Amino acid sequence: LDATADHLTPFAPFGFAEFPTALMLIFWAYVGFELSTVPAAEVRDPRRTIPRGIWVGMLIVTSFYLVTNFVVTAVVPYEELMGSNTPLILAGTAIFGATGAAVMAAGAMISVSGSDESDMLGASRLAYAMAADGLLPHGLASLHRRFRTPYVALIAQGTIAAALSFVDVLTSLISFAVVNLAFSFLLCAASLWQFQHGQPAALTDVARRGHTLRGRATRVLPVLAVAICVGLLAAAAHRQQLAALAVLAAGLVVYFVAAPKRAHETAGEWLH
Asked: Do residues 120 and 154 make contact, with C-beta atoms less than 8 angstroms apart?
């Protein structure tokens, strides 16, 4: 117990100057839940399943991350954690020896695989939906004849991800991803604010019901979300900010040059 207290004291040995940078890495660890809404057409009873999955999943992930980080910092001195790229293995070794290290390494690989699978499922369907609506080239809305999956979008996604893996170190890629996500979430928060303050009559039936039932209880959410997103964007290094702007500019080029601006005849009909 004395050793644990020593490892946890002081709470912030280097102060909070680097807290925004650390928050970006933490934020990336939690995102991905929003992708669960994308393949709704492939889920049984999505109106009930997806909200429940998001809440249960976030509770599990939050609890697991908090407990894991507490154990790691309680068992291993922060000086050793600073010099290691495998803090979980350090903690596992300190508690259970070589067996603990093997268990931690296996658990990390399972976690990475699960995250990878959810990203592949969600991001490819998002590209498919955008292509079906004419916001991306129609080729990305192609479905495999046998498996009925957006194989062109999956190939494009895998190619881009493989290329990015050779570009920079992991922390820089994470920061780059968070900047792009924060910008997307910023637009989503602004859209929610518009829904809340716009004309409910212009919304669809489903959106109108949500506006009526939950509008008053969620007035503060878009304001809070905008503040968080702006903070994340400001905390990023100039290099990541410029890289994100370059990606956004490339997306605009694709939209204006290659996107047909009209819905795909068959994919658009099936999607809606």
From this structure: yes
CB crowding 161-192: b at 16 or more within 10 Å, else e: eeeeeeeeeeeebbbbbbbbbbbebbeebeeb
pTM value? 0.73
**pLDDT, tens digit, for every residue of 76-111?**
888 888 887 788 888 888 888 888 888 888 887 887
Angle formed at CA 264 by CA 263 and CA 269, multiple of 5 degrees: 85
Provide the phi-psi class of 134: left if phi over 0, else alpha when psi is between -120 and 50, else beta: left
User: Which residue has 């980080």 as its token pair?
Assistant: 69
DSSP assignment of 30-94 equals HTTGGGGGTTGGGSSSHHHHHHHHHHHHHHHHHHHHHHHHHHHHHHS-HHHHHT-S-HHHHHHHH
CA torsion sign, 75 to 78 to 80 to 85? Answer: positive
